[in-house]
Known about the structure:
The chain is an alpha/beta fold. It is built from 13 helices and 14 strands. The radius of gyration is 21 Å and the shape is globular. The two termini are 38 Å apart.
Amino acid sequence: MLQLVNVGQKSLVDYATIATRGLMDEIRRLAEPLAGKRLLHLSATAFGGGVAEINYALVPLMRDAGLDTEWRIITGGDEFFAVTKAIHNALQGDPNGLTSTQEELFRRYQALNAEELENDYDFIVVHDPQPIGMIEHHSDSSANWIWRCHIDLSEPNPSVLGFLLPWLSRYDGAIFHMPQYVPRTSGLPPAYIWPPAIDPLTPKNMALSPEDAAYIVDQFGIDVERPVLTQISRFDPWKDPLGVIDAYREVKKRHSDVQLALVGSMAHDDPEGWDYYNRTVLYAAGDPDVYILSNLNNIGSVEVNAFQVHSAGVIQKSIREGFGLTVTEALWKTRPVVASRVGGIVAQIQDGETGWLVDSPEACAQACLEILADPVAARQRALRGKEFVRRHFLMPRLLRDWLVLLNVLSGNDTAGAEVATVAAV
């Protein structure tokens, strides 16, 4: 059996003061015909990254809505996750393809994991490319298989996408964050569009007083009397921590007291993480005002919350970004956010209204200088950003979207409750 993830319990009732009554009523109506259906989430890891964070909230809420829901993790050695990282990079535009050896290794692990998968679910949700090929070994499955893509496929490497397409074409549906992420190629299953969401009731996103945040941040050596800029991200070239350091150095010329915190997590399915962590440390060149921290420094959900709450500004200087839930989190905490004009970030920030969208380290530095120069005006943008998140990017809305799709695949009436779709090529 594949490893089962223990997600604890959550109750929809607890979200009643956050979501609108109309949304909560719609969730209950959509859940009723799905009561007792078995649903499985399959992913590569139970920690590190947006997929895991979403599932820790979504899975127990699906259960509370009446679905018999599980979340299981595939197995794989370092060699397998090196290949899946190469696939991830290629789908986001890296020109390097896969060797025949890498393709064969990927197929072998799909077969090995498929052997450990039971075949008595009504729905199987496969997250991202790592388990995508397991469907080939369950051709007799009566389940509806759904591929949930969390990355930017707007300019995928054609050879790698072609390698995955024979599996993807077997699915009953695929979900993407944005219409632009749906590859313009034939052979795709029906494509559904909705953004991810954050859980406002988790330790990472719950209300935290400025005093408590300062106390926690102080434990990591930050001078809480001086401004700090923070990026929360994996150590990954797509997140551009080196570019963040460049921006910080520009800010430092005008604000010698500013500090920078680069806070990330090391996930076991990201073998490049350590290499890029070391590159980031070298690039910081021993600057005592640059703090490079991870879960190995006891950074957990509460600590991430504290850094976001305490920061004068939160940066997300990604080169490519599937959605960018760290942006959502910071906006929810009413923090001024400076982020790249890429991917799902542009669906979250209205430049000049709810935050700053930038295209270079220099523009990032200028935005940070604006925040430091006029924190009152920066907070006004952040307040508008929080309200935008409340309306669009919280967990009850995500649950509602899933329930709509599951009803569609079950042939149930969903009149008045739709999700966006993209027509096939």
